[in-house]
Design a protein that fits this description.
640 residues; alpha/beta; binds flavin-adenine dinucleotide; 15% strand; four-stranded mixed β-sheet; single chain
Length: 640
């Protein structure tokens, strides 16, 4: 048993869980609003998915094509999400993204430039104009570097004011959060802090705070073939559920069309969409550019139908339609899946992606340095000379913590906020490439601002915020329980089976019978997990770390499977073989997941109705492909 008296304790105004783009931006904003903030990161500082982002940040600055503006970006985002996005989040995102990119530049980010010295922007799937601000194919690295630099600058200011570098902003790396604590009853129930442990030593740390921001990223590590790394076990999603919050859109997972398929040891590793944005074409084993066979009706008017027109678009985008390789990711992933299934795949079970015939070798090496290096080192393939083999990989979760669109406050839990990939609603059923990095900045900033305001609100009411010793003791006992079991199996075996189950039965193409089978298996895994044991001590013990993550993984996987079973249509990242069409009726519905004592329930909730002003940005003929007549009438689109 842990001695509570000896536990390391801190008091901050705002605790941010996660040091990716969303977490760092939230912490900077909380500090800018005069609050002390702690940033907790499961991995090393700087090691987050944000740093792995390759292609760029979507923002309608109009630097490469001055026809771009927030309205076009908003329209593309809604189309990409198949109109299931929270319209208000998509609106705020499109309006504020340019300011967030310029702010990043003011803080020291060195973006690639256009010939006339502006921030360069590149093409990406689903974006009407070149829109992604980028730094080669290492944009995330520059973004994280800049946000970290900003934190250091603020710490230097704090040193001058208080004599202490870390008085306003302190980073705790390799410090994993296992629990969010609550205090108060009824209307006064609110967040009180979090419990974390130092990964190297295995000792516990208690943080008390009025506000907590969840910025823990995605859930992709529950799938076998994934671009996600070990941290992405859905901790924030699960902890939000456990303290009374809800999740939205959990059935929508993005399977990125292009992951490496070979060598097996790196199967799933991402091949950035920039390869297609910069001219890469997809072909099957017969040499056919198959994407022309897969342009869905809703996108017919926006994509080229012949190779000649698609090729002309690269030099004359104003007078030609885009190549279908640049359709939104869900469409391209399904098309690749169908080609491989039809026996037209490559030797290693993917399709070919070739940029070598479009661009000279030195340009490829300059524009796609990481991709060149990745293929050369891992597969001995020189992408300046030959094609890559690629196939779908689990990449991103559109679903996440249900939040207020303006403040990022978690629905139903006072003092809890969520931003970035851990929050839901913004991307609807499918995210456009580049829209995550901009989402992190726009909503990370908002989360930090409103988390700071919440601190004033609580203190203004004269309330104290403390974690009860009983709650702390219970959380410690839970965390240490795997050491107390004599019999039982290793968490690795259970995680392996979960990844297999999710990949095979709740993957890119789904059917009711397979999802039901997955739910039975998840229940069996839960039984096995209740008896899971770990060996060794608490100092750097990855088996124990996994034992703490696994319950969260299983809970979130169950949410994904249950929501996937209920939604009887195919839309964006959710494809049901038994319900292959999009349904106007289902488009009006969000599935909201809650969990009480690990018992998961799902209710249907109406999607908020888009304002007439925003609806007026689309042609009625386009909206009618997604909406019922009744809805169209209620939007008064016709009179605009
Ligand atoms: C290979 C790759 C390439 C990508 N390229 C692009 C791109 O070009 N453009 C784009 O827009 N998007 C891209 N994405 C998606 C994008 O990078 C992510 O969606 C985004 O970075 C998520 O940011 P975040 O701040 O929400 O979380 P992350 O950056 O994932 O950070 C999460 C943080 O939470 C921490 N954490 C998790 N659980 C805990 C816990 N229990 N306790 C403490 N800390 C915890 C982690 O350690 C980490 O610090 C890419 C993703 C990948 C994997």
């Amino acid at each position: 048993m842990e001695n509570i008296e000896r536990i390391e304790r801190y008091k901050f105004d705002v605790v941010v869980i996660g040091a990716g783009g969303a977490g760092l931006r939230a912490a900077i904003e909380a500090r800018a609003n005069g609050k002390s903030a702690a940033v907790l990161s499961k991995s090393l500082f700087g090691k987050a998915h944000t740093v792995m982002a390759e292609g760029g940040i979507a923002a309608s600055m109009g630097n490469v094509n001055d026809r771009d503006n927030w309205q076009v970006h908003f329209g593309d985002t809604m189309r990409g999400g198949k109109f299931l996005n929270h319209y208000r989040m998509a609106e705020l995102h499109a309006k504020e993204a340019p300011d967030r990119v310029w702010e990043l530049e003011a803080w020291g980010a060195l973006f690639d430039r256009t010939k006339d010295g502006k921030i360069s922007q590149r093409n990406f799937g689903g974006h009407e104009y070149p829109r992604l601000a980028h730094v080669g194919d290492r944009t995330g690295l520059e973004m994280i570097r800049t946000l970290q630099q900003r934190i250091v600058a603020l710490q230097q200011e704090d040193k001058q004011k208080t004599g202490e570098f870390e008085s306003g902003l302190k980073v705790f790396a390799e410090c994993s959060v296992t629990k969010i604590f609550m205090t108060g009853e009824g209307d006064d129930r609110r967040v009180a802090g979090v419990l974390a442990y130092w990964r190297p030593s295995g000792t516990f740390v208690l943080f008390e705070s009025e506000s907590v921001v969840i910025a823990t990223g995605g859930i992709g590590k529950s799938f076998k073939v994934t671009s996600n790394s070990w941290e992405y076990t859905g901790d924030g999603h699960a902890m939000a559920l456990e303290c009374g919050g809800s999740l939205v859109n959990m059935e929508f997972l993005q399977f990125h069309p292009t992951g490496m398929v070979w060598p097996l040891s790196v199967k799933g590793l991402l091949v950035t969409e920039s390869v297609r944005g910069d001219g890469g074409v997809l072909t099957n084993s017969e040499g056919r550019r198959f994407m022309f066979d897969y342009i869905p009706d809703v996108f017919k008017s926006k994509y080229a139908t012949t190779e000649e027109e698609a090729d002309r678009w690269y030099t004359d985008p104003d007078n030609n339609l885009r190549p279908p390789e640049l359709l939104p990711r869900d469409e391209v992933a399904r098309a690749i899946n169908s080609e491989v299934k039809a026996g037209r795949g490559t030797p290693h079970g993917g399709v070919f992606l070739d940029v070598s015939k479009r661009l000279p070798a030195d340009v490829i090496r300059a524009k796609l340095p990481s991709m060149w290096h990745q293929f050369k080192e891992l597969a001995d393939v020189d992408i300046t000379q030959e094609a890559m083999e690629v196939g779908p990989t689990c990449h991103y979760v559109m679903g996440g913590v249900e939040v207020d669109p303006d403040t990022q406050a978690a629905v139903g839990v006072k003092g809890l906020f969520a931003a970035g990939e851990a929050s839901g609603g913004m991307h609807g059923s499918n995210r456009l490439g580049g829209n995550s990095l901009s989402d992190l900045l726009v909503f990370g900033r908002r989360a930090g601002q409103f988390a700071a305001e919440h601190v004033d609100e609580v203190r203004g009411q004269g309330k104290q915020t403390h974690v009860s010793e009983a709650d702390l003791q219970a959380a410690l006992d839970w965390a240490l329980a795997p050491f107390t079991r004599v019999e039982g199996e290793s968490p690795y075996a259970i995680q392996y089976d979960l990844q297999d189950t999710m990949n095979a039965l709740v993957g890119i193409i789904r059917t009711a019978s397979e999802i039901e089978e997955a739910l039975v298996k998840i229940q069996e895994l839960k039984v096995r997990m209740a008896n899971m044991k770990v060996i060794g001590g608490r100092a750097y013990n990855p088996g124990w770390h996994l034992a703490l993550d696994l319950p969260k993984q299983l809970l979130v996987s169950q949410c994904v499977a249950m929501a996937a079973l209920i939604r009887e249509e195919s839309r964006g990242g959710h494809t049901r073989e038994d319900f292959p069409e999009m349904s106007d009726e289902w488009r009006k519905v969000n599935l909201i997941v809650r969990a009480e004592a690990q018992e998961v329930t799902i209710v249907k909730q109406s999607l908020p109705t888009m304002t007439s002003e925003l609806a007026g940005l689309f042609d009625e003929s386009e909206l009618s492909k997604y909406m019922t007549l009744e809805e169209l009438d209620s939007l008064v689109v016709r009179t605009l």
